[in-house]
Amino acid sequence: MSYAYMTTLCSGDAYLPGVEVLGRSLDASGTQIPKVVLATRDVTESARKRLAALAWQVRPIEPIANPSASNPLFARFGPVFAKLRAWEQTDFDRIVALDADTLVLQNIDDLFARPGFAAAPDFFLPDRFNSGVMVLEPSLEVARKMRDSLAVSGSYDGGDQGFLNEFYPDWYTMPVEHRLPVGYNMANFIYQFLRAHPTLKARLESETKVVHYLVQKPWQARAVLTGGAAAWWQRYFEVHPAANWPGGDALHAAEDWAFEHLAALALE
To answer: pLDDT of 16-69, one tens digit each?
Structure first.
């Protein structure tokens, strides 16, 4: 069996720091499985060279037009349908697709034993899956059906997640092996909430394997008050040690502390 971890970089280099950190977190997990990034033509040559130097296999892909481009939930959802190109990478038998805003905390090679298709529930709509972490089996036939469906299927969020939930409408009722535990795709603010409360931390923190930065992206915000800042920046500074500065680690720990206390006040 041929396996790969795969992510997508599209619409320029905006998510390059995310891919760098994702790759570093995979390396730190001890995996020996190849890392592949699908890059659209607007990704710069310097970014491609940077990722290749970090042991990413960079594969050029063509973008896929967003059929809901006029009404996405977030503007950044415009180019995300390029992610569907993962189903075309048929030199692999199974792929674990990870969004560029995810961070691996523990080895997740066990996901390759899952049948394709598999995903974890979405935080906001738990009877639908979140497309940030998926196990899939590449297939040109499935890829063709997806392209055909783009013209007629809806997308409740104007992005790939809404479309894929239309394409796999029976995910919620599939056998249990197709539904990943939430720890494989944990929202960053929930991750921080668990860490802040001793009772929850003792029971649930060890189950968190992948953190997903759903709204704010650490590298795009001056202050990340939705949790998980320190964990992400730790890996970033490992890739970019010169970017760290005295007090940098303490600042990001303070961001998480602030989130924890704001959450506690909200619950009083």
So the answer is: 999 999 999 999 999 999 999 999 999 999 999 999 999 999 999 999 988 875
User: Does 2.60.40.10 match the CATH number of domain 3-181?
Assistant: no
- Whats the size of the chain, residue-wise? 268
pLDDT at residue 2 in the model = 97
Placement of tokens 């929202």 in the chain = 187
CA-based R_g, the chain, Å: 18
Q: Determine the 3-state secondary structure of 256 from DSSP.
A: helix
Higher pLDDT, 197 or 88: 88
* 35 CB-side CA count, 13 A: 27
What is the tens place of the pLDDT at every residue in 244-267?
Answer: 988 888 889 988 888 887 766 665
How far apart are the C-alpha atoms of 41 and 150, rounded to whole Å? 22
Domain ranges of the chain: 3-181, 186-267
Distance between CA atoms of 218 and 121, rounded to whole angstroms? 23
Exposure of 237 in the CB half-sphere (CA atoms within 13 A): 15
Q: Answer for the pair 95, 6: CB distance below 8 angstroms, yes or no.
A: yes
Angle, helices 229-239/16-28, rounded to nearest 10 degrees: 90
| Distance (Å, whole) CA 63 – CA 39 | 9
